[in-house]
């Protein structure tokens, strides 16, 4: 495994906090109610942030996932967990031109997701913000499930030697494997992008 550039991780590691206490959610509604399905692509999205351990320190990964197709439409990575990280992920998703006007973006109550800056950013993109309850995994289970998949597939028990190495592996996984090749039971055992494109074609034909 060391030949692959992977370094064994310790059994227990510091887990950086990315959520704030229950009381500070700024009145943002939960527009999803644990319903992580959508009749059309680009109408309901979920997002979250996780960290990847490297010998240089943590690499933070923010994602934007389409609830209809399960495709990762946006992602961003950085050595920090600041608002710009989650904005970059949404910016990438919006840049595809696949998001519908008034789309819902659901997250946990991460400090940057509930910030005024992020709220204004979403409003400018005509995206509605939705948050679940702090500490309740089921309120953002779809986003968290993706992180479980990627960490299991990417040998999460080991630490990458550098952030650059970790970033290249994550990009290869998301764009080369997960979106295009990994079969998803909810899509009739098809990869996410195939399901997304098929739904778009059906809408266009209609």
Automatic annotation (TrEMBL):
<dbReference type="InterPro" id="IPR050900">
    <property type="entry name" value="Transposase_IS3/IS150/IS904"/>
</dbReference>
<dbReference type="InterPro" id="IPR012337">
    <property type="entry name" value="RNaseH-like_sf"/>
</dbReference>
<dbReference type="Pfam" id="PF00665">
    <property type="entry name" value="rve"/>
</dbReference>
<dbReference type="GO" id="GO:0003676">
    <property type="term" value="F:nucleic acid binding"/>
</dbReference>
<dbReference type="InterPro" id="IPR001584">
    <property type="entry name" value="Integrase_cat-core"/>
</dbReference>
<protein>
    <submittedName>
        <fullName>Integrase-like protein</fullName>
    </submittedName>
</protein>
<dbReference type="GO" id="GO:0015074">
    <property type="term" value="P:DNA integration"/>
</dbReference>
<dbReference type="InterPro" id="IPR048020">
    <property type="entry name" value="Transpos_IS3"/>
</dbReference>
<dbReference type="InterPro" id="IPR036397">
    <property type="entry name" value="RNaseH_sf"/>
</dbReference>
<dbReference type="Pfam" id="PF13333">
    <property type="entry name" value="rve_2"/>
</dbReference>
<feature type="domain" description="Integrase catalytic">
    <location>
        <begin position="37"/>
        <end position="199"/>
    </location>
</feature>
């Amino acid at each position: 495994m060391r030949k692959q550039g992977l370094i064994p991780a310790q059994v227990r590691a510091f887990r950086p906090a990315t959520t704030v206490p229950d009381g500070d959610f700024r009145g943002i509604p939960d527009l999803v109610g644990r319903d992580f399905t959508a009749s059309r692509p680009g109408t309901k999205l979920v997002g979250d942030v996780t960290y990847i351990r490297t010998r240089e320190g943590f690499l933070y990964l923010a994602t934007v996932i389409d609830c209809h197709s399960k495709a990762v439409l946006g992602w961003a990575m950085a050595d920090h967990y600041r608002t710009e990280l989650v904005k970059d992920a949404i910016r990438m998703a919006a840049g595809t031109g696949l998001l519908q006007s008034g789309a819902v973006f659901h997250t946990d109550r991460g400090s940057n997701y509930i910030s005024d800056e992020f709220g204004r950013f979403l409003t400018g993109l005509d995206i509605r913000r939705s948050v679940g309850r702090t500490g309740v995994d089921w309120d953002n289970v779809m986003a968290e499930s993706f992180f479980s998949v990627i960490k299991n597939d990417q040998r999460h028990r080991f630490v990458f030697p550098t952030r650059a190495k970790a970033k290249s592996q994550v990009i290869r996984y998301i764009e080369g494997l997960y979106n295009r090749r990994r079969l998803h039971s909810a899509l009739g055992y098809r990869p996410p992008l195939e399901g997304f494109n098929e739904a778009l074609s059906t809408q266009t034909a209609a």
